[in-house]
Specification:
5 helices; 6 strands; 17% strand; globular
Length: 168
Amino acid sequence: MNLLQDKKFLDRWMDLIYNFFKTTRNTDSDKLYYAAIQKLGQEASPKDEAPDEYGCVDSFEEVYKSAFGEYVGKKKTLSTTIMYQTLLIHPKFQRIDNPERGCVIISPTGHSIKANAIGHVGIFSDNCGTILSNDSRSGLWLENFTWRSWNLYYKDKLGLPVYLFKRL
C-alpha cells in the first residue's frame, strides 16, 4: 500500500472503532464485530491451514476464536458447507432475515447448480452494510463486499444461497 492508501485504511479503521464504541451494547454480535475489525488489514489465519484463495472459513474461525475463545463447532473447520451445517444446529446461533452488525453471512459451497461455484463467509460490519472477510487475492481480512455486492456475486452470478446468522 502507498501512503494515501494507508491513510484511507487508517481513517476507515478509526471510523469503525469510533462507531463501535459509540453504539456498543456488549452483545455477542458486538464481540464478534469488534474481533473482526481488530483483524482488519491483517492475515487473520497466519498458519494458512487453507490456501488464501480458499481461506475464508479459516480466517472466520480465527476471528471467532479471538472473540469467544473457541471455534464455532469446538473443532475448527475449513469448509463453508460444514460451517453452514454447524451454524444451523448450533444452540448459540439463530438464522435471521435481515443483516445487522456482527451477524455471520454465508453462501456455502455445494449449494449451486453451477459448476465450480465456491462459497464464502464473512461478518457484517457497521451500518454502511459492508462485510468483512478474507480476501482471496491477498489473504488479508478486509472490507470486501457490501450486502448488495455479495448478493450480486454469490446469489445472482454463482447461484448460491445467502444465509445470515446471529449469535445469541
